[in-house]
Specification:
The protein has 87 residues and is mainly α. Helix content is 61%, strand content 0%.
Length: 87
Amino acid sequence: MGKHMGTAVARYIVALVLLAAVAGPVFAEDKIPDDPAVLDRLQKKKDAEALDKQYNSTLKNTNQATTPVRADPWQNMRGADDSKTKR
């Protein structure tokens, strides 16, 4: 019975070591790097995402279905009856 207990404990220890080896890099990615270039790149990425979010919300708020009103800059210069048949 002692022989079987030793192999079970050994398997348990090996399983814990393998789990720690696999899980170690996963938790290491959560650290914030101290490199200024990496921090600058992360900040630029966050700024770009915020700008994209603001742009998309502005597009959503504008009503694109309506046609723009055409302004006639010569409206006040024409006479009362300015039909094309007189030309």
